[in-house]
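Please check what follows.
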Amino acid sequence: MSWESRADRVDHESPEYVWQQIADDLRADIESGELSAGSRLPSGPELGEIYGVARLTAIKAVNALRDEGLLKVLSGKGTFVAPKKS
């Protein structure tokens, strides 16, 4: 999967929080299989650049998906798509 700009996927005028829009976008990629189990995501600062937002906004989206069990954050290694629960 290529990580070109996704800034057009964020609507700053929407009543939905920007971090939620990013989480929804990443969730859709995970659920569609575009991001498969074990796929590594860019770092928080890189995701911020990709989505055209502050790094903390991107990190909040990643943390929300981690809390849902969709991502695993391994300290010093990165963020990965978690295996599907059976």
Remarks:
- The two ends are 25 Å apart (CA to CA).
